[in-house]
Amino acid sequence: MVGLSRFQPAMTEHTTPTNAVELYLDHRRGDLASASLQSHEYRLNPFLRWCDQEGIQSMETLSGRDLAAYKAWRRDDGDLAPATLKTQMDTIRVFIRFCESIEAVPENLHEKVLSPTLKARENQRDERIKPEQAKEILSFLGRYRYASLGHVIMALLWRTGIRLGGVRAIDLNDYKPDRSRIELYHRPESDTPLKNQTEGERYLALKTKTCELLDDWIEYNRPDVTDDYDREPLLASNHGRLSRASTRRYVYRLTRPCEIGDCPHGRDPDTCEATGNGGHAASKCPSSHGTHAIRRGSITHFLASDVPEEVVCDRMNVSRDVLDDHYDRRPEEQKVEQRRGYLNNV
C-alpha cells in the first residue's frame, strides 16, 4: 500500500517562531521595497517577543485562541492607535498565511486572525491635536487646575511628544530637577516597558516652566504612594501608578471642547453621552482626542517650528521613515518654504 503520508500535510519538522519570521522576510525580500520589508519586520518583532514570553517554541502549536490572546496583548502592551493595531494584525494574517504554505502551522489558521474593524474616526490617521487647542487647554489648566494630575499629563504629553507607555513609566527619581530633564528607562519586569525597549531609553530636556509645574505637583499634590513593585511613580493616584486606561481617560476628558468652553456640536452637557459617568464616556465625544493624537500633533508642531528632523527623531524616539509616514502632517507648501529658509543661508 502506498504510504498515506504522501497525501497528508505531515508537519514532522518543528518551525520555531524566529525561523518562521526569518523565512517569511526572506520570501518577501524580492517583492517588497526595503522600507516596507523593514516595516514588516518591525510589526513581527512583538509577535516574537510574545511567543518567547508565552513559551511558544513551535509554530505548529499555534491556535486561533493563541492569536486572539496575542491581539489582546499587543493592544495593551504598547501605545497603539486602533489603525496601527489593525495594520499589525493584518501583517500577522499575511505572515500566518505564508506559514501555512510551508506547512508550519495548521491549515486555514490565517482565517482566525482577528483584525480590528475600525470606526470612522479611528481610521483617520491624520487625527492630531492642533497647537492652538493644546495651548488653550494648558492655559485653562494652568489657571484653574494648576499642578493637578491632568495638568501634568497634558503638559508632558504635549511638550515632549512622549508615548503613553513612556509617560506612565516615569518614576519620581527619574525626574532630575537640577538638570532640567527626565530620564526614560525600559523596565518590563515591573510593568513599565517602553515601546522600543532599551532603544527607547533616553533623556528628555525640559523647559523651566515644565520643571516648575513638576516641582509643584510633587510638593503639593502628588500622593505619597508606591506601585506594586515598590517604585514611586511620578504620575500617581491614591491607588498607585496611573494605568494606561486611566491616562487615556484623562486625555479624552481634557480634550473635549466643553471641558474649557462651549460644545461645537450643539449638545447639552447635562444629557450628552460623552459627559456621562462611565469610565470611557469622554471618548464618545466627536472632538476629543486620544494620547496618540497629542503625540502626532506635538511632533508636527516641533517640525513646523523649525526643529531639525534628526532632533525630533531622537527626542520622540521615532525613525525617519516612520516620522515621514505617520507623524509629519505639515502641508507640502510649508515644508518647501521651511527648506528654502535653510537654503538661503548656504
Automatic annotation (TrEMBL):
CDD domains: DNA_BRE_C. GO terms for biological process: DNA integration; DNA recombination. InterPro entries: CB, DNA_brk_join_enz, Integrase-like_cat_sf, Integrase_recombinase_N, Integrase_SAM-like_N, Tyrosine_recombinase_XerCD. GO terms for molecular function: DNA binding. It comes from the Archaea. Keywords: DNA integration, DNA recombination, DNA-binding. It holds the Pfam family Phage_int_SAM_1. Signal peptide: none annotated. Residues 15-100 form the Core-binding (CB) domain. This is Site-specific integrase. The lineage of its organism: Archaea, Methanobacteriati, Methanobacteriota, Stenosarchaea group, Halobacteria.
